[in-house]
């Protein structure tokens, strides 16, 4: 953590953002890994979001490479712990790739996705989108995970969505639930 300020002050974030879009898998992975490590420090979040890190993370969250995908989901999860970032992450289109990543068979990725969606659903503006984009269906599947951490965060995400009464009809419709 002590080197994060030096790295960011040196302009490395711009290089990392560009590197996440490279064709070379190893370059993409190393860049997203470095971004994820920097995102573990909450003080870096504003600078990272201002540095346009969200869009390439969203793309990598849907990447075919499971390692890059997991790191991108983890980085988005870290960024989603800050209320200011939640709407921006959803606005960048993160719900669809996160939904796709949720159904992979990698438990670590499922943990990151469930935690990220749980945080994203804390924002009132995101709750209906979780249902309407199809992210709630994989969350319901993750609620049944044998991994307690995956199940806990997935249940939390569904509970966060359900806190908004305006989502109840959409939940009933899109998830084939009952609604009076």
Protein architecture, described:
By secondary structure, the protein is an all-alpha fold. It contains 13 helices and no strands. α6 (about 65-80) runs parallel beside α9. The longest helix is centred in the N-terminal third of the chain and has 15 residues, at about 25-40.
Radius of gyration equals 16 Å
Helix content: over 70%
Order of helices and strands: HHHHHHHHHHHHH
Any idea what the shape is? globular
Number of strands: 0
Number of helices: 13
Low-confidence stretches are: none
Largest sheet: none
| Average pLDDT rating | 92
Q: Determine the structural class based on helices, strands and strand pairing.
A: mainly alpha
User: How far do the termini sit from each other?
Assistant: 52 Å
Percent strand: under 5%
Could you provide a short overview of the structure?
The protein is mostly helical.
How is the secondary structure organized here?
Layout: H1 4-9, H2 12-19, H3 25-39, H4 45-50, H5 54-61, H6 66-80, H7 83-91, H8 95-102, H9 107-120, H10 124-132, H11 136-142, H12 148-162, H13 168-174
Task: Note the main attributes of this structure.
180 residues, mainly alpha, 13 helices
